[in-house]
Amino acid sequence: MLDKKLLGILVCPLCKGELHYDKSTQELVCLGDALAFPIKDDVPVMLIEEARELSLDEREKY
């Protein structure tokens, strides 16, 4: 589980926009860039090259 304080200060490294925590996939999601950043061993991996693109269905989910 990620610390709520950490979640409150993390932003997308590409656009500096808000991130949404998806507990089911263990990812931080940026809707503006349609990217999902993985969380590995409770540590967010905020590297653009490690992010995956969201599908159209996933974008509508948020």
Order of helices and strands: HEEEEEH
Determine the mean pLDDT: 93
SS elements, strand count? 5
Anisotropy-based shape = globular
- Helix % is 10-25%
Please report the first level of CATH classification, the CATH class. Answer: Mainly Beta
How many whole angstroms does the radius of gyration measure? Answer: 11 Å
Low-confidence runs (pLDDT<50, min 5 residues)?
none
Please name the CATH topology: N-terminal domain of TfIIb
CATH architecture tag: Single Sheet
Number of domains: 1
Overview of the molecule:
A hairpin with a 4-residue loop joins strand 2 and strand 3. The protein is α+β, with helices and mostly antiparallel strands and 62 residues long. It has a single domain, classed as N-terminal domain of TfIIb (Single Sheet). The two termini are 20 Å apart. Strands 1, 2, 3, 4 and 5 form a five-stranded antiparallel sheet that branches. The protein is 19% helix and 27% strand. The mean pLDDT is 93. The protein is globular, with a radius of gyration of 11 Å.
